[in-house]
Design goal:
single chain; 2 domains; mainly alpha
Length: 82
Amino acid sequence: MILGLVLGLIMATIGLYWWQRKAEAEEARQNPDELPVSNPGEMTGPTTPEASELTREQRRFFLYDRTRDWCISRNEMLSTRS
């Protein structure tokens, strides 16, 4: 008996919540002027990052030169092979 009462209260709560959400959705459909309007033409995004002007050789060199001291040590050279 108590279980039936609890289940009834739960179902009534779910029904009221559903009914309220349905009423809000219909109200929004009846008042389209109140919906926010935006013009995507006015929107601007962040600027694109600029890549550094490294040559192909410099980029290949920096693959080995991990410390960026412009000197490739033996450990740096062999680190990709271990």
